[in-house]
Structures are given as structure tokens and as C-alpha cells.
Specification:
The chain is of the alpha+beta class. The protein is built from one helix and ten strands; from the N terminus they run H-E-E-E-E-E-E-E-E-E-E. The protein has a domain of 100 residues.
């Protein structure tokens, strides 16, 4: 058996320690519950007073963000409250259980209605198989616009023009 120098031993121990540390970190991060939102990650919080509610919270672009999702299965709706610091507070509702919509070449799809602060944002058809768009009330395909443009200079407020949308 050959003798190893002190440097070789240190390098081998360091590599073994890094492998163990990365395995532990990977396990921990894969167990985190949350959602990607804007430029960050919101974690599930234990702040919900209602057992049917799930609260996602975190700090994104310098502001506290809190999204509360409350499932109301008896009313066939889901309430979503979006809070960004003291400046944005939107109450959104997704209603389901409406009569199906006949989609082009697909047949009946789930009919949903989305409102924000009491104003209609979207009404049409949805199917989980086509998650990059929805159907309008006549059954025509209505794809999401996935381009986002944002330019910033020092001191600009990231949240100044934020608006909760149907997506």
C-alpha cells in the first residue's frame, strides 16, 4: 500500500465531505414545498388560520410576498389572495363546475371563470393536457402570451407595474 501525502489526504477528505454535504442539501431542497413566482420561490408557510388554505410566502425583489390559496370544494371555487408588501392586494377567484365548453377538435372541456377584485379576467375552457393556453367561450384556442419584458435601471421599482393576470 502506498503512502499518501498530507495534501492528498486533505483533498480526499474534502471531496468525501463535499459529496456528503451535497447529498444532504439535495435531500433538503427536494423536500421544500413551494411555488416559483416572478423572480423567486415562495415556500409553504404555517400561517394559515383556515385548514383549507395554503399560504405561500417569501421575499422577492425586496418585497414580502404572500399568496393564500383557499379551496372551497362545496362552492366549486378556489380563492387566491395575492399580497405584495403594502402595495398590491388582489383577491382572485377561480370558479369551476360550470357547463362544459365545446372546444375545437377536442370536444367538451372544463369551463372556468376567473375574477380579480370582482372584475372578470377570463372565462372559457381549460384542459390540463394543454397547459399553455385555454379556450374562449366559443371553443377557440386562446394561447398564453409567454413573453415578458422588463427593463430596469438603478432605483427602479420592480413591483411598480405588477398586475395579477389570468395566468
Amino acid at each position: 500500500m502506498e503512502k499518501r501525502s498530507v495534501l492528498q489526504k486533505v483533498v480526499l477528505i474534502s471531496v468525501a465531505a463535499m459529496a456528503v454535504a451535497f447529498a444532504i442539501l439535495t435531500f433538503v431542497f427536494h423536500r421544500l414545498e413551494g411555488v416559483k413566482f416572478e423572480e423567486g420561490f415562495l415556500r409553504v408557510s404555517a400561517q394559515a388560520d383556515d385548514p383549507a388554505a395554503t399560504v405561500y410566502a417569501g421575499k422577492i425583489q425586496g418585497e414580502r410576498v404572500k399568496i393564500t390559496v383557499t379551496d372551497c370544494p362545496d362552492e366549486q371555487r378556489t380563492a387566491v389572495e395575492v399580497q405584495v408588501g403594502d402595495r398590491v392586494r388582489d383577491e382572485c377567484v377561480v370558479e369551476t363546475g360550470l357547463p362544459p365548453i365545446q372546444a375545437d377538435q377536442l370536444g367538451p372541456v372544463e369551463h372556468i371563470r376567473i375574477t380579480r377584485n370582482g372584475q372578470l379576467l377570463f372565462e372559457g375552457g381549460y384542459t390540463a393536457e394543454h397547459d399553455m393556453g385555454w379556450y374562449d367561450l366559443e371553443g377557440n384556442w386562446d394561447p398564453f402570451t409567454m413573453s415578458v419584458s422588463y427593463s430596469s435601471t438603478a432605483g427602479d421599482d420592480y413591483w411598480e407595474h405588477y398586475e395579477t393576470d389570468r395566468g
